[in-house]
Amino acid sequence: MSKLNQLQERLLNNFQKNFPISPTPYADIANDLGITETEVLEILGELQTVGIISRIGPVFQPNSFGVSTLATMAIPELKLAEIANYISSLSEVNHNYEREHNFNLWFVITVITEKNLQTVLAK
């Protein structure tokens, strides 16, 4: 996938910051876009498969509660995918990106307390 089509763009732009908080968020998105819930899920799945989005889930504003930090790691190239997948699986991790730098894996952790932060960092 090289370029987003209009529907994909609308879905991402309209809902990356205003995701419906309801029992049926994907149906709500579908209704707003004039498509079916199945189509919404298919589009999101495709965008995730090609790496345009990494996950669908909440991102809390760190200044509103708790603590957050940007963490970096220097990972050997052969282990990078494995470690990045593990880091991404942690519910406390918001963003996880490979960078061209000595510290080649960067991620943001958001938790409620400093103790929670230290626990996640120790993982």
Q: Give the helices and strands as they follow along the chain.
A: HHHEHEEH
Model regions low in confidence, pLDDT < 50 over at least 5 residues = none
Q: Biggest sheet, in brief?
A: 3 strands, antiparallel
The beta-strand count equals: 3
Largest sheet: spatial strand order: 1-3-2
Count of DSSP-assigned helices:
5
Q: How would you classify the quaternary structure?
A: single chain
Domains (count): 2
Shape: globular
CATH architecture of the largest domain: 2-Layer Sandwich
Percent range for β-strand residues = 15-25%
For this structure, what is the CATH class of the largest domain?
Answer: Alpha Beta
Structural class: alpha+beta
CATH topology of the largest domain: Alpha-Beta Plaits
| CATH homology group of the largest domain | Lrp/AsnC effector binding domain/regulation of amino acid metabolism (RAM) domain
Mean pLDDT: 88
First-last Cα distance: 34 Å
Helix content: 40-55%
Output the radius of gyration: 17 Å
